[in-house]
Amino acid sequence: MTGELLIREMHDADKPRERLLNYGPDKLTNQELLAILINTGNRNESSISLASKILKNLQSIRELRDVTFEELTSINGIGKAKAITILAFIELAVRMHTHSREEDKYIRSPKDVSDILMEKVRYYNQEHFIVLYLTTKNMVIEEKTLFIGSLNSSIVHPREVFREAVKRSAAAFICVHNHPSGDPLNIVS
Fold it and tell me: Is 29 exposed, middle or buried (0-12, 13-18, 19+ CB in 10 A)?
């Protein structure tokens, strides 16, 4: 037993779900929000305690986006289903943050490329070579990661870039790669 109260032993006003309903999600701690996702604890630990175990080795909440299935399931009380729920939530949060309200994305300037990709590639630990394939009106047909390299290099062959462009009948394409050890984005059109 951890010495911490199980959620069923807490006063109703202190339970994460009730606090969310009464005060709003913005008033909950990261631990409480994650506990709601975890849903249930085990015989000896509450979902709050399990959430605390997940968060304790992170320097910031942003690092949660890099947590792996293996790291989650290595925590006693976090099984396959809970790990999948947490990873699905993380991906949903990333998508909400990186996708614009409009389904169709148009490239009018380098800033548009940055707006589409910056949040996604900012925290990658390896170089990613990404290509945006465009229509004649510069609407993004597809965003495709063609190569994933090491910390400081990515080997790219032009035929792969062009093959994908022909496959999509793209009128143009923009090549982008990140720098995990420094400048986060490099754009070449």
Answer: middle
Find the domain containing 77 and state its range.
7-99
Q: How many domains does the chain have?
A: 2
pLDDT digits (tens, 9 = 90+) for 137-167: 999 998 999 988 876 666 788 999 999 999 9
Spatial separation of the C-alpha atoms in residues 127 and 162, rounded to whole Å? 20
Structure-token match 């910390």, residue found? 151
Q: What is the pLDDT of residues 45-84, one digit of tens each?
A: 889 999 999 999 888 888 888 899 999 999 999 999 999 9
Tokens of 161: 């870039």
Question: What is the token pair recorded at 87?
Answer: 């990873």
* CATH classification at residue 174: 3.40.140.10
Q: Where are the alpha helices (DSSP H) in the chain?
A: 16-23, 30-38, 47-55, 69-73, 80-98, 110-121, 158-167
Q: Indicate the residue among 48, 64, 99 that finishes a domain.
A: 99
Q: What share of the chain is helix, strand, coil (3-state, %, to 5)?
A: 45, 15, 40
Query: Which tokens belong to 14?
Result: 């202190």
